[in-house]
Amino acid sequence: MGHVRSNEWVPEKEEGRRIGILGGTFDPVHAAHLVCAEAVGAALGLDRVVLMPAGVPSFKRDTAAASAEDRLSMADLAVADNPRLAYSGLEV
């Protein structure tokens, strides 16, 4: 990945903050992912919840899946307007 996108998670900037990680295939990212992230963040008093797409989608190995780059782009768009949500490409 050559550039930092709008809401890409940079761990070094989060020191001292409470961060949650929500992993999944995110193929595609949908409203339930975002509702879940918001609900868990609120329930646990988190400062931010990071969506982390899986490198190899474990439940979708035999089906055509979106590329890692496309799933990162979907995650970027999904969290762009919410400062409490971010995404990470660490696993792809």
- How are strands sequenced across the largest beta sheet? 1-2-3
Mass-distribution shape: globular
The CATH superfamily bears the name: HUPs
The N- and C-terminal alpha carbons lie at a distance of: 10 Å
**Which structural class best describes the helix and strand composition?**
alpha/beta
Could you state the order of secondary-structure elements as H and E? Answer: EHEHE
Q: Give the biggest sheet.
A: 3 strands, parallel
Cα Rg: 13 Å
Please identify, by name, the CATH architecture.
3-Layer(aba) Sandwich
The level-1 CATH class? Alpha Beta
- The total count of helices amounts to 2
What percent of residues adopt helix (DSSP H or I)? Answer: 25-40%
DSSP strand count: 3
Task: Explain what this protein looks like in three dimensions.
With 92 residues, the chain is an alpha/beta fold. The chain has a single domain (18-87), classed as HUPs (Rossmann fold, 3-Layer(aba) Sandwich). The chain is 28% helix and 16% strand. It contains 2 helices and 3 strands. Strands 1-2-3 form a 3-stranded parallel β-sheet, covered by helices on one side. The protein is globular.
Write the layout of secondary structure elements.
Elements: E1 19-24, H1 31-44, E2 48-53, H2 68-79, E3 85-87
Parallel strand pairs: 1-2, 2-3
